[in-house]
Fold this protein.
Amino acid sequence: MDNKMDLDKHQNEGIENIPMQQRRDFLKMGLAITGIFAGGSMLSVASTFNRAHASDFAKKYPYKPHYSMVMRQDRCIDCERCMEACVKTNHVPNVHGAYRTTILEKETPDAIGGKREFIPVLCNQCNLPQCVRVCPTKATYKDKTNGIVMMKIQNCIGCLTCQEGCPYNARYFSEEKKAVDKCNFCIDTRLAHGEKLTACAFACPAEVRVFGDLSNQEDQVFKLVHQIEKQVWVLRPEAGTRPNVFYTKG
Amino acid sequence: MAQQFTLNELVSGVVNRLKSAGMGYYLMVLISGLLVLAATGAGLHAMIMGHENFYNVTREMPWGILIAAYVFFVVTSTGLCLVSSIGHVFGIQDFMPIAKRSVFLSIATILSGFFVIAFEIKLPWRMAIYNVISPNLTSNIWWMGTLYGIYLMFMFMEYVFLNMNKHNPAVVCGFSGSVAGILAHSNLGAVFGLLMGREFWHGPYMPIYFIASAMMTGCAVIIMFHILGYKVNNEKMGPDMERSLEVTTKVGILLICVILFFTTWKMISGIAGEPGGKYEAIMALINGKFAFSFWVFEILAAMVAPLILFMLSRGKNLKFMLLASISMIIGIFVMRFNLVMVGQSVPVYLELGVNEYKHLMDYVPSLYEMIITAGGFGMTALLFLLGEKIFDGHKVDADHH
C-alpha cells in the first residue's frame, strides 16, 4: 500500500520528457519479446505440423486401399470389448500370451486431473516391416494390394525371429495354427466378406479405433492424420518401421 | 602313412582301439550317450505335445537357453575352424598338428548346435522345404542357415581329405569352409545386430564381436580337447603338439584381450548419454539382475582368470592351460546366455512407461530346456570320445614321428 501511495504522489512525467535513447531501448525490448513469442509459436506450429502429418511416418501410401487405424487414445476406457471381439472373430487361442490386440495402461500419478490412460496396441502394419525382412522363408509378407502384413501359415518354421524383430510385440506363436499369428486387420474374417470395419473397431463403444483407407482423401483416417490442430503420433518411431497405426486425442 | 588298408583291417583296428579303452572312457561314453538320448526324448516330447507346455519362453522373450546354446555351439565350431585354419590353410607350421582334431571337433560342435536348434525351432521340418523353395534374401537367419549348411559340407570334405592325406583339396575345402564360416557366423551376429527395435543388440558391433569371440572360444576348445584327447588315448604329447598348443595359447591371450577391449567399449557406449533401451540393459549387467553372471562368469571365468592362467602357464604348463580353457568354456556359455537374454529382457514398450512393461523381464530355463542343452554338450562329448578312438587320436604326420 505504501508503494501505491508513493506512486500516487508522483506526477506523470509525460512521454515528451523521455530521452530518445531510452525510447529506442524500450522499443527494441518490445520487439525482442514479440519476436521470441512469435518465433516460438511458429516453431511450435512447425513441429506440430511435422508430427501431425502421417506422411512423415508412413512416408507414402503405396497401397489401394492403404489400410490404417487411428487410435483416439483418450477415449479408451479399457472395457476390452475390442479384445473380446478379436478373439472371437479371429479364433485367437485362449492361452497366456496369445492375443492380436491388447490395451496397455499408463499411470501418471503427478498429473493434474486424470492420471490414467489406456493405450490400445496391435500390429502396426508397417511400411518397412522388420518381421518381413527377417523371416527366412517369406512366411510373413506385405500384401501387395492393401499393405497388410500377412502370414502364410505353411511357410512358417517357428524360428520366432519375427517376434524378436517386431518393435510392437504384435506377434505370438499359435500351437493351434502351427505358425506365428498376428493381426491382419480382419482381412480374411471380415473385410473379405464386405464388412467395412475390423472386429475391434466395430466392437468399440467409444469409437476409439478409427479404421479406414489412408489413400482416400475423403476417408476419416486421412482427415484425422492430415491436420495440425491435434497432435498425431506413432509408437516407437525410432525403430524406423513407418507404422500405419496412429495415435491422437479427442 | 599313405598305406592302404582293407576294410576288415580298418574295422578291426577301430574295434581294438575301442577295446583298449579304460573304464573311465566307457563311463563317459555312457553318460554322454544318455544325455543325448534324454535330450532327444525331451525334445521330441515337447515337439509333439506343444512346446509351450514344456519350455519357459514367452511371447516377450521367445528365445530361450536353446538359442543361447545354439549360438555357443556354432561360435565354438567357427572358432575351431578359424584358429585351426591358421595352420593347415594358411601354412603356419606351428599350427599344423592341431588341424585334424580341430576340424573334427568343428563338425561335432556344429552338429550339436543343429541338434539343439532342431528342438528350439517349432517346425524344423518346414525349414528343410521352405528354406529352399521360398528363400528370403534379406533375412540374416536365412543366410546364416544356408551358409552353415555349406560350411558343414566343406568341413566334412576337409576332414575326409585330411585323413586321406590329400593336402591340396584339403586346403581348398579348409579355405572355403573358413569363408563360409565367417559369412555364416557374422550373419548370426547380424540376426541380432540388425534388429532396430532391440537397442542392446542393434548396430554393427554384433557381427564383428561374434567373429572375434568365435576365435577366442576356438582357442579354449582346441586347448581343452587336445589335452583331454591325449589323456583319453593315454599318450604323451610330442614336441610339435606342445609347440602348437603354446602358440594357440598365445593367440588365446590376444583374443581375450580383444574381447575385453570390445566389452569395455560396449559397456561405456551403453552408459554414456544413457541411450534408451540400451542403458537399462547395460546397467542390468553392471549392477542389476545379470550382474552376478556378468562379473563372475563373463568377466572372471571367461576372460580374466584364463588370461592370468594362460600367462602363468607360458603356454607350457598343461594343467594351468586345461584349467584356464575349462573356465573359459563355462564362462563363454554364460556369456552367450547373457547376450541372448539381456537383449530380450528390455521390453519393447519400456520407454512408453506403461504398467505392463515397467521393468526388465525374467526368463528361467525349464527342465526340458536344460535337458536338451545338456544333450548338446553330451553330443559334443560323445562325438569327441568316439572320434578319439575311431580316428586314432587324429594323428597328423608331423606329430607321428
